[in-house]
User: Fold this.
Amino acid sequence: MGPYRPPAREQLELDVVREVVLARRRLDSMVLAALTLGAELMNHQSARATACRAAQILELFAIDETEVERDPRAALRADMMRDNDRARRIGLRSPAGVPSEQDRRRQRQTALLREVRADLIEVLRRCRKHHFDRGAVADEIAQGLCAATDKLVVGADMDAYHAWQRGMVLKLIEEPVPYGPPRVMATVDAGPGRGPLTVEWDTPERRLALVARMARAGISPVVICDRLLADLSVSSPIRYSLR
Assistant:
């Protein structure tokens, strides 16, 4: 008696699940490998050393396709559990599944900061791709910086912005949350006649104030863009954890 073969519809479903899981895992593998290699590039002294290390990293992050072939549905469930756990760790999803208004506000802010960071990176990519001269690069980056600033202004708390403009941080602490990374809270000098103000560090308001202070100091848009990108890539000034 030959092996049991599922009906054509079920087999088609299994094939689709398998291909989806394999595609997701291959993409994750390539992204993690690229990030790992990118973090090490400054340590390599030659193209040969870089190529050898790239091969090692690709091997390190290679996926086990036999596991997916054996049970596509179990592989998909495992990936969904991993994605949910990752979302909780970075604060995009609450354990209860019903985020509070504060949770939703933080999620919107995080999404906005990531969008601004992606926009600035795209501006730099265009400059490299089209080989602009120095003046054209400065103009392109200045325009991108203005667009990024416009996005940061939307929904910004002006009291927090004005406090950050003074640039006088009195204290930094991390506050644990039920899920995701801890919040970094800063106590800042709110100005004459006002007491210290406690505000969150990882916010659009602080980035707006950073850009405004540097612009007032006459710093070029290219340097401001570089500084803002570096700032947007770090979520905590205490742990310096990469976003």
